[in-house]
Write a structure and sequence with these properties.
Blueprint (H helix, E strand, L loop, with lengths): L2 H56 L10 H18 L9 H9 L3 H7 L2 H16 L7 H19 L4 H17 L2 H13 L4 H22 L15 H36 L3 H22 L9 H8 L8 H14 L7 H19 L3 H17 L2 H12 L5 H18 L4 H30 L1
């Protein structure tokens, strides 16, 4: 065979190989990103659990240690708010509004102000610090911002142009890995993050959820977030829970989200003359108030509320006013400006409300807690399908599918009647406006420097 022929054949094979590699490179990078979300979510969960247990052990170690939150909680809040404002801007709050806002922004620089690996690192560290301080926050919302940040970094490294779809995929993967609820991750992405079904992104979302879920399963094993239960309505009192938990939970959720949007707006205006100083003052006051509530409740309102919610799902009645105490602690944690989510605390509030209703009605505490979670959660986020699927996957209660669906829908309708604007989308507008103002300021500065030069 002539030498030139052999050489041209080798060149063609080389081109095929490298051409195929360039096609596969974005996919491999995307898969690695999805697996990373699962691994980081599990690590985040373990750090959060350690922080909660450490706070609980410190505040119960001696006779007078129950008063320590009066010092630890305000100082922790001030420190968290300071670090968030100075080192990790846009890491405050849940993280879901930032991910929603990033999907609406078209400029890459604008997106990077809300989603970046630096912010993801800060989000994890400061959420853990908040839980160590006794804040009534969760890690699930922050995991959404972390997952979206990882996927946006993947888009840059892998040369992928579908930034909006990748943010959606990262958010879904974060929810799926945080709760071990793959279906809820997909529904959350469609219903809450995008508010529409985007066929071009469905493959990305599904693949990301599968891979992050596999990584989480490999590290934590298969489990239901609240264990497994199989309660169902049996008597008239049980069926009355559907209406009470739907209307009552939806109304409470609407009050929380509506008041949170209103107060957040007022706080931003109040803080304008001296934003850092005033926000630190607010964080300290909120931290002290949360410490007082926690001491008054015997420590039950500190942290995510997971233990209390799981106990209610297993049939252990919670104190009658626990849901009000937890709701107030969660509200104060939210407006304080520290990083932390409301998913887990909202489930605890819902379980507490359901437990109280079940006790007063004389019905099953476990069933009432599950329905209370569905009604309140649907009222807060105004996403009934997400509420239904996430509650079903977390409890494994397939015997109460129809009641959970009905309560979720009733809670959503009640909330929409009382509060027209969904919480996360209302908060996302703040980040969109801030990103646009920052870009315009940077452009104005660049123009001024160019004119001066």
């Amino acid at each position: 065979m002539p030498q030139p022929y052999r050489k041209s054949k080798l060149v063609r094979r080389s081109r095929v190989f490298w051409g195929s590699f360039s096609l596969w490179r974005p996919r491999l990078v995307f898969w690695c990103g999805a697996l990373a979300i699962g691994v980081i979510s599990v690590g985040f969960a373990r750090l959060a659990d350690m922080a909660q247990k450490t706070f609980a052990s410190i505040t119960t170690s001696s006779e007078w240690s129950f008063l320590l939150p009066l010092i630890i909680t305000p100082l922790g809040f001030v420190l968290s708010a300071y670090i968030a404002a100075t080192m990790f801007p846009n890491s405050q709050g849940s993280g879901i509004p930032q991910a929603i806002a990033a999907r609406h922004l078209h400029d890459e620089t604008d997106r990077s102000r809300l989603l970046s690996m630096r912010i993801a690192f800060g989000k994890i560290v400061l959420t853990v610090l908040g839980l160590f301080s006794g804040a009534s926050i969760g890690r699930e919302g922050p995991t959404v911002q972390v997952g979206a940040s990882i996927m946006l970094a993947v888009a840059r490294f892998g040369g992928m142009a579908q930034a909006r779809g990748l943010i959606l995929a990262g958010s879904a993967a974060g929810i799926a890995a945080a709760f071990n609820t793959p279906l809820a991750g997909i529904v959350f992405a469609i219903e809450e993050m995008s508010r529409t079904y985007e066929s071009r992104s469905n493959g990305l979302v599904l693949t990301a959820v599968i891979l992050s879920g596999l990584a989480a399963l490999g590290l934590s094993g298969s489990y239901n977030y609240f264990g497994s239960t199989s309660v169902a309505p049996m008597h008239l009192a049980d069926w009355s829970l559907v209406l009470i938990c739907g209307v009552g939970g939806g109304g409470l959720g609407a009050a929380f989200s509506g008041f949170a949007l209103y107060v957040s707006q007022r706080v931003r205006r109040w803080a304008q003359p001296q934003p850092l100083k005033r926000m630190l003052l607010l964080a300290g006051v909120c931290g002290f108030a949360i410490a007082v509530i926690g001491i008054g409740s015997g420590g039950t309102t500190f942290g995510t509320g997971y233990d209390q919610a799981r106990g209610a799902v297993e049939g252990q009645a919670l104190p009658l006013f626990f849901f009000l105490e937890k709701l107030l602690a969660s509200f104060l944690s939210m407006i304080s400006g520290i990083p932390g989510g409301i998913f887990a605390p909202s489930l605890a509030v819902g379980a507490g409300f359901g437990s109280t209703v079940g006790t007063l009605v004389g019905s099953s505490i476990a069933l009432a807690a599950i329905l209370g979670m569905a009604g309140y959660f649907a009222g807060v986020v105004q996403a009934p399908m997400t509420a239904f699927v996430i509650i079903l996957e977390m409890t494994g209660d397939h015997q109460a599918v129809i009641p959970i669906m009905a309560v979720s829908m009733i809670g959503y309708v009640t909330s929409r009647l009382l509060s027209r604007e969904p919480l996360y989308h209302g908060l996302s507008r703040v980040f969109i406006a801030a990103a646009i103002r920052a870009r315009r300021a940077a452009e104005h500065k660049a123009s001024a420097e160019e004119a001066a030069g």
